Amino acid sequence: MTSAFRTLTVPLDAESFPGGLPSFLVRDDLLCWTRREAGLVGFGEIARFTATGPERFLEADIWWRHLVLEADIEDAVDCPGTGPVAFGSFAFSKVSPHGSRLIVPEIVVGLRDGRGWLTQLTFDDGELTEAGARAALQRWLDAPAAGDGAAAGADVVLPAVSAGNGATPDPVPALASAPAPRAATLSTGSLSEADWMAAVAAGVAEIRTGALEKLVLARDIVATVPDGVNAAEILRQLAVRYRECWTYGVDGLVGSTPEMLIQVEGRTAQARVLAGTLDRRDAEGMAGSPLEFAERVLAGSEKQRHEHDIAIQSLTTQLAPFSEAMNAHSEPFILELPNVWHLASDVKAELTEVEGHVPTCLALINALHPTAAVCGTPTTVAGALIRKLEHLDRGPYAGPVGWLDAAGNGEWGIALRGAVIESPQTVRLYAGCGIVEGSAPEAELAETWAKFRPMLESLGISS
User: Fold this and answer.
1) Does any domain span residue 331?
2) Would 41 be classed as within a structural domain?
3) Alpha-carbon distance 241 to 235, whole Å?
4) Which of 113, 136, 153 is the last residue of a domain?
5) Cα radius of gyration (the chain)
6) Which residues, in sequence order, are CB contacts of 368 under 8 Å at separation 6+?
7) For the chain, what is the domain count?
8) Which domain holds residue 30?
9) Is the CB of residue 163 less than 8 Å from the CB of residue 40?
10) Beta strands of 283-425 (E only): which ranges?
11) Strand, coil or helix: what is 259?
12) 298 located within any domain
């Protein structure tokens, strides 16, 4: 007979680790969700759910709700992300053989609005104490994972936690410099550049027939790093360099996404929609300030505005049945990232009860995914065309990634600007572009290289 699921959450002094959560990114096998030094980092694994197919979100939702229903929860902090937490990553496609997953860690360190906490999760019968939770965290920080180059070889100071004396982690210095250039080779993935541009041209031709308005096509490249891939180093670099993005790490899926699919806190849901991209390098030598250039080229482009409007309409239409009130920016804003600018809009909704209860974040994801921002519109037509033209199983790329807690709160981004670590020496990187009637294959190819840049830089590969 399985013991009851139990959790203990205790406060941590957030001021004692001023580097924020990147201080804890010291193992290749950790779970990570962080933005602006806040978020969650998980260590270990006590339970896992996997599924494939069109019902993967709802099956995961049922599993999680059953798990936490009878949980014994002791929570001295009581804010989103405390108590029982699972990290998740879901396949983009309902026909993908890639396993979507929820993972329940043994230890979670959290930071939010200046408040820090430590959660221990277990199925064991032993007593949960603050001293025991601190000791468990220290064990994870001290012990390198099997085949792990992070804790054993990274130039970081491991946070020190003393059991039972109220001590909290010493800060790990934030990384300010790029990783040293590394010997690496890049190879094409499923399609060569020429074949991918031909796929873009075929997509534009389909759009011009009126079969669909927008199509999102992705491509992959493989980086081979002979001296080893260091997941913890990748995550630290991304977390520091892309503070306005959500840096994620789940089971070898790593990246830093600028796009929030759905964030749920109580009855409030929020999303950040992106569509329309401009490489920052394109501003070099142009008149006016770089931001003025971005506003002129992005906000002033009928093609970019059309692509953005499609993405907003897709999200708000799918979210409306779950909402009693909703608002979105009347005009998109320019989101400035180190590698690109985006046209962005934030959407906020107050959730309504559906069949007697407020919908969970996984139920919302089931309704929202895939959005026009990562698939196209109409979704069914675009999805079929993606399978025909990409010659690629996206796996978790462009699928939902994030976390949820027992209270129904959660944050789920779209797994963009990311990669899958496939072996100790190889990483498969993904990037995609929104294709509309005015798209040019050469320009779309250049855009994918701009979107590859965050991962290439974090690997120490010049781009």
Assistant:
1) yes
2) yes
3) 10
4) 153
5) 22
6) 261, 262, 271, 315, 318, 319
7) 2
8) 6-153
9) no
10) 323-328, 333-336, 340-351, 376-377, 400-405, 410-414, 418-423
11) coil
12) yes
Q: Indicate whether 118 and 218 sit together in one domain.
A: no
Does 24 lie in the same domain as 96?
yes
Antiparallel, parallel or unpaired: β 31-35 and 260-265? unpaired
Strands (E), 69-142: 72-75, 85-89, 100-104, 107-112, 115-122
Residues paired with residue 41 on neighbouring β-strands, in sequence order: 32, 109
Gap between the Cα atoms of 432 and 64, Å rounded:
31
The last residue of one of the domains, among 153, 177, 201, is 153
Per-residue model confidence (pLDDT) at position 340: 84
377 beta partners: 214
Model pTM? Answer: 0.90
- CATH code of the domain in which 409 resides: 3.60.120.10
Q: Which of 41, 29, 39, 7 is nearest to 120 (CA)?
A: 7
- pLDDT for 178: 60
The answer on 386 and 322 residing in a single domain is yes
118 and 197 fall within a common domain: no
The reported pLDDT for the residue numbered 375 is 94
Whether residue 179 lies inside any domain: the answer is no
Helix (H, G, I), strand (E, B) or coil at 432: strand
Residue from 121, 82, 86, 110 nearest 100 by CA: 86
Q: Are residues 336 and 272 in the same domain?
A: yes
Could you report the average pLDDT of every consecutive run of 10 residues in the chain (463 residues)?
A: 84 84 93 95 98 98 95 95 98 97 98 94 93 95 61 34 39 50 86 97 97 95 94 95 95 96 95 86 80 84 82 88 86 86 91 88 95 92 96 97 96 97 96 93 95 93 76
* Co-location of 137 and 222 in the same domain: no
Q: Which element (helix H / strand E) includes 7?
A: strand 6-12
Instruction: Supply 121's token pair.
Output: 């999760």
> Are residues 217 and 293 both part of a single domain?
yes
> Is the domain of 222 the same as that of 345?
yes
Q: How far apart are CA 297 and CA 300, in angstroms?
A: 5
Strand duo 418-423 + 410-414: pairing? unpaired
Say what the pLDDT of residue 168 is.
Answer: 40
Distance CA 139, CA 24 (A): 13
* Residue 114 neighbours by CB distance under 10 Å: 8
Are 345 and 179 in contact, with CB atoms under 8 Å apart? no
Helix-then-strand count for the chain, H and E? 10, 23
Please give the single-letter amino acid code of residue 95: V
